[in-house]
Amino acid sequence: MTKILLVRHGEAAKSPRDADPGLTELGQRQARELAERYARSERFSLVSSPKARAQQTAQPLADRWQAPVSIEEAVIEIPSPPDVPLHRRGDWLRGLLESEWDKKDALQSGWRRNTIDYLAQLQQDTAVFCHFMVLNSVVAHIRGDRRVRQFRPDYTSVTELSLDGGKLEIRRLGAERRSRIV
């Protein structure tokens, strides 16, 4: 059985003009606290989304373990349609959260399939530093639930999965945010 930890990145410095913001000061502290929590635990391979906020969340643990972080496109945040400008992405995401996966276009469906296929082929215990929508798409897939929003993972929350015989299972959902903001 393979263990998979899906780790939501720390708080990002959101901006309607920056497609790849890094972590805020709070986000950096969250990443350090996560590293402290897992510093003495069993070691996992470390994988991160290419986005700066996910890589910056992974780095403190990588530093403690003196381990590399592999960058993986399959766990990047969900792509918005080409006609949605960056300053409208938040509105698009809020609408997406109230919809169902089978109603999405080929871009989002392909992204989701790629993410799930990547996780299903892992052969060693892995911590994956990723995004809100990655977590929700994987949980929806495992549950067989078409709703996009499954839960509201907090920053640096850890959702534990297992993979056995090619089948993903949820062991424990990560902590949820109390705020309604994504």
Automatic annotation (TrEMBL):
Pfam families, per the entry: His_Phos_1
Entry's InterPro entries? His_Pase_superF_clade-1 (IPR013078), His_PPase_superfam (IPR029033), PGM_Phosphatase (IPR050275)
Q: Which SMART domains match?
A: PGAM
Residues annotated as coiled-coil are none
- Name by which UniProt lists this protein: Histidine phosphatase family protein
